[in-house]
Amino acid sequence: MSVKFYLKFPLYIIVSFLILLLAWFVLMRPGDEAHTELPDETYQEEELPEKEKQVMEMDEFGLPKENYRVETMRVRSGHTLSHIFDRFGFSPVVTDRVAREMIEVFNPRRMRRGNHYHGYFAMDSTETFDYFVYEISDLEFVLVDFRDSVRVTRVEKEISIVPKMASGVIYSSLWNTLLDNELHPELAIHMSRILAWSVDFYRIFSGDRFKVLYAMKYVDDRPVGVSHVDAVYFMHRGREVEGYRFEADTIKGYYDAAGNNLRKVFLRAPLEFGRISSRYSHSRLHPIHGDRRPHLGTDYAAPHGTPILAVGDGEVTRTSYTRGNGNYVHIRHNSVYETQYLHMSRFATGIRPGVRVTQGQVIGYVGSTGLATGPHVCFRFWKNGQQVDHLRLDFPSGDPLPEDYMDDFVIRMQRLRMELDAIDFAPEV
């Protein structure tokens, strides 16, 4: 019996193999539905929409251009989200739902007059309203997606940073020079903050000049502001000032070529921009009383509502009102120095006695309260209990760059200085 089994076994294997081979040949003939190209075709059909999506052109909010008809408008004075959605035909119920969803990322009550908003209507027979976009700023927007359910997101636009260089010769003001040279005016704010302790921007001389290395922010090839300044050279009344940006670990600031901090203990003025309308004097003709009396402060004229800055770190000791001073803030900086800011239209939020403030912090806004003929801030400065002319004082600098960082700083500074040296001054006019 065992002999017969071993004789039959090879024949059985051969027959089974022939049957399987015949079945494979029949199933895999060209033209049949069951062939090897079927999985490939299925794969291609699944990938096709993704390929179409890759070539679809998107607008600045990431929505497909050819799929929608877009209505763009500006927020009008006094208009709220209800006015806007009523324009698009939404019911109060839908508006309320959107408002409740939106409050998580942006308060719709803070929509500003003049800002753009957009409604997206599908380019088909239904013309359904799929998206609503409100532009918070050049850099942010709120996107409301009405497909399926209401979804609200706050989105930051993609920003590219582009290095720039500029120069100029000043004949009136830094601001006007930037505009004359078709440079972004925000650059004036950055430069004035960096050089606030070294350059008196209230006494710019005709012929003062500057060179600057900076970076611009772009959204879709459109400039939206200055990112930062890397290096600046300024010749002020024949005196040269230079500053280089350096950041490492907890160190952040601008330093001269020797590593000295450009930041000093006190700002030269409590405003970023304005003009000196009256100086410190022991005998000034009073504009209201008409007699001569001491004016132990410096008046800076500026538009109503201009932010007033604390010139140094310190503690607010008084926020009050008097008939002569109007609304004023008094700050004690240490045992030696105190400052006072008069004629404010109002105090900044949170400014009250006992609060600590930092240099450059907004403490109030320019006004004309008290005895004042126009909007300005009267800035007063005390040293050891005596009022002095702060413009005649030479304040010490902040902490220099620590020695451990000097090698890295020098390498960076030398590279930036070479780039500054390569810039020609803008042609004189």
Kindly describe this structure.
This protein is of the alpha+beta class and 429 residues long. The protein folds into three domains: 65-156, Roll (Nuclear Transport Factor 2, Chain: A); 160-264, Nuclear Transport Factor 2, Chain: A; 275-392, Glucose Permease (Domain IIA) (Distorted Sandwich). It has helices at 2-27, 37-55, 81-87, 92-102, 174-180, 186-194, 406-421, and strands at residues 68-74, 116-122, 129-135, 140-145, 151-156, 160-169, 209-219, 222-236, 239-248, 251-255, 275-278, 281-285, 292-295, 298-301, 307-309, 314-322, 326-332, 337-347, 356-357, 362-366, 376-383, 386-388. The strands form four sheets. Strands 11, 14, 15, 16, 17, 18, 19, 20, 21 and 22 form a ten-stranded antiparallel sheet that branches. Strands 1-2-3-4-5 form a five-stranded antiparallel sheet, covered by helices on one side. Helix 3 crosses helix 4 (92-102).
What's the gist of this structure?
The chain is α+β, with helices and mostly antiparallel strands and 429 residues long. Helices cover 22% and strands 35% of the residues.
Write the layout of secondary structure elements.
Elements: H1 2-27, H2 37-55, E1 68-74, H3 81-87, H4 92-102, E2 116-122, E3 129-135, E4 140-145, E5 151-156, E6 160-169, H5 174-180, H6 186-194, E7 209-219, E8 222-236, E9 239-248, E10 251-255, E11 275-278, E12 281-285, E13 292-295, E14 298-301, E15 307-309, E16 314-322, E17 326-332, E18 337-347, E19 356-357, E20 362-366, E21 376-383, E22 386-388, H7 406-421
Antiparallel strand pairs: 1-2, 2-3, 3-4, 4-5, 6-7, 7-8, 8-9, 9-10, 11-14, 12-13, 14-21, 15-20, 16-17, 16-19, 17-18, 18-20, 18-21, 21-22
